[in-house]
């Protein structure tokens, strides 16, 4: 069936929510989006990366405008600090095509594609329920509405998930990720890192953690030479508040090669955030008339770089299910069969990547090309990842890599 006549509510108007709204509109549904924030979401978020094939599919399907700026690169470069010195040692290169984006620009593109949906900003959903006839009830301060389908795209603290799986709780990893962006001027006096970042995204390994670096578009008509430098740094937090920029600078000074330390430790951040790493997943991604999308369905450790990728894949599958199923309930059951195993796979992959890169990080200074390739194969253990193109990767599957959009519009990283 086409979803003509189907009433669809979407809880959350961020990337996942806008993608769900586009899916519903394209399938023919009457869509209403409830976004709790009254502010401008385009100002949130940091870096995000999607597989090139998924980006092309989203453009072809009309979810994204081809004019949305991106900063594609094809290679991953591994660096560490030379033992006993401060210079950078490159110890591996791998094919790893990715399409980095600016979270705010991605949200704007998806929001523009929701034409035909009603988008209520500053209207939080207070509670959800079911009618005796099995329809969904959405309650806000303005009253209540009933829907044939409600998509919970309300992030890692999802109200919708609490309705479907009230006993599910997040499992902390015991370490944190610091994310930020630096202006183009941070690279001005460092030509070697600047040239490297024009062709690659970079992993810097250090004892007990690693950092990810890559360029993202700035927006506002800014050109390639005006891209922001996005980063994510994983480590065990100090006793004091881990959100301090001072701690990121301390890590950089202590562990990074000299040029990279200067960029991070002395650059003026345009944005900076920190949060503890954790994961959580719902046992089912749909129970008609409700479904879960993006971080509401499952939060993986950000090494998987799957937050926004998963949400976009969720939307594409929902559109197909609504178009081809005999009823909304059948569409959601099909969605659950497809998306639930993927969430479980990504959560497990994230745990494995976290153990390998932070909790039991190798001696990066002893690694070389062959050691990295063997380490990647052992870490993936047969799993697919678009960032490991030479290891049988699935072109649309999320995995360890540069930052993406994380819970509540923060960025996510590998």
Automatic annotation (TrEMBL):
It comes from the Bacteria. Keywords: Monooxygenase, Oxidoreductase. Gene3D superfamilies: FAD/NAD(P)-binding domain. Pfam families: FAD_binding_3 (PF01494). Residues 9-348 form the FAD-binding domain. This is FAD-dependent monooxygenase. One of its GO terms (molecular function) is monooxygenase activity. It comes from Streptomyces halstedii.
